[in-house]
């Protein structure tokens, strides 16, 4: 990779401001001196910087073990070949869920208890999310999984930490052989019979052959989930949760999973691969969530491929969710996305679709971390709009991002991010909304500018252009949502 490209990637690296490692990344040298078992894995590069061999599973596992012990007082281990989590990375997802729970976008109606209760779909042998959520925030969890090794080791990891073990239940998901459906087509045991699938292998094991299907269904089958239940049939009738989270099996095949030779995070076939990949797995979570509705306040999942986000978002709206939120988890060279949705009625915000409330808006980003400057914020503005499908242009000499959104693009960001109550009059260009009313759109154009005030403080301004556009009333809401996103990314104190 060219140095320019590398620099740009590094600049984009963000870590949640409440993440323990946001200001203080793990100090390998210190850890090596405190934990002799870690010492053999640490080497020093010519410039004197300590590092580990990220392609050595034993090294990454020992790092995770000492980080969990040193920074979280957690005892932890996994057997060879199981997926080894990176602690700073996994903490970002926990803090994002924390943000969702504390926001008042949807009412706090589910939990009458003091304790937050979460459901970790596919907790793995490493049980990382329940361990972090319970130790950092006192949350209680049900962690589910399908494999015996995951269940055995997740339970071992819970029992090794008596101070939080009461907070975590590990639940085995039993295969439901009679209810494997592909878009309404019922498959019996012959399709999902696990005995026909080699469950033993790690990387390098052969991918099982496709189950035999009628040729016309074969291509569809690939893209749809078949396998053990995920939420429906695992969540009990009387159970309520504040959220669910999931790091899904991302890949469709082992070949695809094994493409990154730069790291050795382990991962058995069952952990990494699911027929149809993450798209099929998360689609099933969406379908299950539609049936479970208000049993969860927030449903969330990690998404490994940006190209799947759009598909999943449209699936969500097709399933009548009331709100969708997305985020980007960028750390080092890894980029993942988070998607969250709910069926609870959002707090209602009325917007005018014809008269802009304000043509100019601004806010300050204060107490920025040392390494975050105006360019980082500008890039975050660009990626926020790009992620939501709004064409925009970043001009790094004028420190501006120009956004111009068509009616469809505007519709998409508004639906993705904002619970809208449309009261606009019917018009020819209007489109139906969930409450039966209609909204008319035209082009929305605005400019976002970022100014350095004093070190650590930036002024972000938005100015509406083309004020007569019938959609210009959406400007202030879009700008506010962008503000929320930037604050969550950059500010330690988010007020
Ligand atoms: C990518 S791993 C994630 C493990 C861990 N949560 C982490 O973040 O490192 C996916 C996990 O989902 C599990 N899994 C696959 N299908 C499942 C299902 N239907 N219900 C529950 N867990 C499932 C796999 O066994 C595996 O442990």
UniProtKB/TrEMBL annotation:
Matches recorded under InterPro entries: METTL16/PsiM, METTL16/RlmF, SAM-dependent_MTases_sf
GO MF annotations in UniProt: methyltransferase activity
Record GO biological process: rRNA base methylation
Region Disordered, residue ranges: 1-26
Ranges of biased composition (kind: Basic residues): 1-19
EC number, as in UniProt: 2.1.1.-
Keyword Transferase: yes
Gene3D superfamilies: Vaccinia Virus protein VP39 (3.40.50.150)
Pfam families referenced in this protein's UniProt entry, alphabetically: Methyltransf_10
UniProt-annotated binding residues for S-adenosyl-L-methionine: 90, 122, 145, 247
GO CC term, one of those recorded: nucleus
Keywords assigned: Methyltransferase, S-adenosyl-L-methionine, Transferase
Family per record: Belongs to the methyltransferase superfamily. METTL16/RlmF family.
Alphabetized PANTHER family for the sequence: RNA N6-ADENOSINE-METHYLTRANSFERASE METTL16 (PTHR13393:SF0), SAM-DEPENDENT METHYLTRANSFERASE (PTHR13393)
Listed name of the protein: U6 small nuclear RNA (adenine-(43)-N(6))-methyltransferase
Organism (species): Acacia crassicarpa
Organism ancestry: Eukaryota, Viridiplantae, Streptophyta, Embryophyta, Tracheophyta
